[in-house]
Amino acid sequence: MCGIFGIYRHPEAAKLAVYGLYALQHRGQESAGVASSDGDVLHLAKGMGLVSEVFGGRDLDDLPGDCSIGHVRYSTSGSSYLANAGPILAATQHGEVALGHNGNLVNCCDLREELEGGGAIFSTTTDSEVILHLFARSTQADPVDALVESLKRLQGAFSLVVLLRDALVGVRDPWGFRPLVLGDLEGSPVLASETCALDLLNARYIREIAPGEVIIMDREGIRSLFPFPKVQPVPCIFEYVYFARPDSDLFGRVVFPIRQAMGRILAKEHPVEADMVVPVPDSGLPAAMGYSEQSGIPLVWGLIRNHYVGRTFIAPRQSMRDVSVRLKLNAVPALLKGKRVVLVDDSLVRGTTSRKIVRLVRDAGAAEVHLRLSSPPIVNSCVYGIDTPERSELLAANMDLEAITAFVEADSVGYLSVEGMHAAAETDLGRACHACFGGPYPVQYTQLRERQRHLFEKDHR
Ligand code: SF4
Q1: Which of 27, 433, 437 to probe ligand 1 with, by most ligand atoms within 8 A of CB?
Q2: Residue range 217-230: mean pLDDT, rounded
Q3: For ligand 1, is residue 422 a contact (CB within 6 Å)?
């Protein structure tokens, strides 16, 4: 997962890019970076950590110019270290270029092998750098033509913001896996992964960048190209389940009510006699609201989340059971004691966190804990830019419902059906990717994830 942002021709471009990244922080917490163009030279600042850690309290004098792009990263290809942080910048025969990428290229190993065979020297272990090398090698005279030529070699998920010396380009792959939207701030065009970044800036939402669209902003104005062969768009349905911010307008629909609808359908598919519906904060809240509305069972804040826990912590010497979850969540015994609880979460991946949360609720005195998930069982890994674990680590890929229920130590477990998920999102089976929920992989990938990791990391460590 990553979040990307771009703004063209605004006197405070870099500052607005940083603000935009704050709104997109949920899409990546490993690193943050901003590149700017002063019309002559490109500038770059990036670091490991949250946006506030990288940019908080610093002036942005080293990012001059009125065009800027930003990137927050969560690694799905290549390890987490500074060289891999976005945007990545290169000097080429077509001039300097900076790139922010959300997604994952499924043919990046083949492309990288080909490029390295031709003498290319890579300086990161990301799949995104492949795009810069293709761009650098293009024989097209015009930089935008060179970029388009490079894009045609790519397979998989790529929403991009590309900064050239005097142009900003937005790209969405023809399958439309990852979101990208266009807005306007006082006459300056804005690109962002999600509309929540536009809202923060008070920018006007104009439209989604269409699957397969390349939108170019330069001195001639704004124009769009559609250089890819036409395919059926298949946006990622997991964006609706979990990844996107609930206040965003994604693929033409606001996320929050979709998650509520998932909860309502979940209540119809898996009813249970209970005293209260307890959301797993924050991501389980909208679905829990829907479950409560549909079932008539009251919604109770039986779990309180601590928002100030960092991403890493030092484990205590004496083993303290489930400390990682207890640092983030606290159960409220006064509310839960003796109650039959429907615990609503958005998804279950490895199952270890869910088990800890079930224990937490039980330890607080709950009489019964019924886990309800507002997405179907995750049975496959994602190859399009979401960092799901290998199939061997996915609980639902390796256990039946009875075994899952025993593993998470719940009284019962109920998953939303694939049909229910699509009904809530108003998509249908062929018009959204649900490969991780057992659907087909819309873009075939020839390389195994292990091979990808190996190839991209072998030289670095
Ligand atoms: S496999 Fe799952 S997470 Fe990956 S793009 Fe498809 S729906 Fe989204």
Answers
A1: 433
A2: 96
A3: no
Omega before 66 cis (within 30°)? no
pLDDT of 179 reads 97
Q: Which of 382, 379, 364 shows the shortest CA–CA distance to 443?
A: 382
**The model scores a pTM over 0.90:** yes
Q: How far is CA 56 from CA 51, 76, 372, in A?
A: 7, 26, 39
Centre of ligand 1 to C-alpha 152, Å, is 22
Residue nearest to atom 8 of ligand 1 (CA): 236
Question: Ligand 1 center to residue 437 CA distance, Å?
Answer: 8
Shortest-distance Cα residue to atom 2 of ligand 1: 436
The domains of the chain, with CATH numbers, are 2-234 (3.60.20.10), 250-437 (3.40.50.2020)
Give the chain's length: 461
User: Of all protein residues, whose CA lies closest to atom 5 belonging to ligand 1?
Assistant: 236
Give the list of residues 6+ apart from residue 93 with CB closer than 8 angstroms, or none. Answer: 136
> Is the pLDDT confidence value at 80 over 70?
no
Give the pair of three-digit tokens for residue 58.
Answer: 């610093």
